[in-house]
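Hi U.,

Before I forget, here's the chain from the pilot set. I'm dumping it here mostly so it's searchable later in email.
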Amino acid sequence: MSQIGSYALPVLLAAVLLHGLYKRVPVFDAFLNGAATGLQTAVRLLPTLVGMLTAVAMLQTSGAVELLATALAPVASLIGLPAEVLPLALIHPVSGSGATAVLADLLHRFGPDSVIGNVASVMCGSGETTLYAVTVYYGSCGVTRTRHTLVSALAADCAVAVLSGIGVRLLLA
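Structure:
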């Protein structure tokens, strides 16, 4: 099976190249135009991404995430969500790499088979890095008004946090 997978990308690239030649498309010129457009998009996104990554670093190093998690701990205990996963619930919509670091720390401290480890794993697997996705997708298109997207996506992130705790308790505890 792994040998088949190793041929998938070269076969796909050859098929695209042959299809382009069959349709009499100047394949190399099309590739260069696509590469130039991709580079322009990356340059246009760079300031927004730098700003977002700076904000994430400031939130993590200032202790704001831990302070907010401490403030939300009583509410989390009412709905059965372990307080230890609150920093993960807060950082995951903002930063995928930050969430991965928090998840690794939780799994190291509590174990992957613990309730906390299970809730954290379900939370990471079910959620999205909302602010990163909105920044990249809307930034690449030049959209400045997100309308209801951000509110809806953050509501979904809250639902992921709550339902991961409930789901683990119902199905695995």
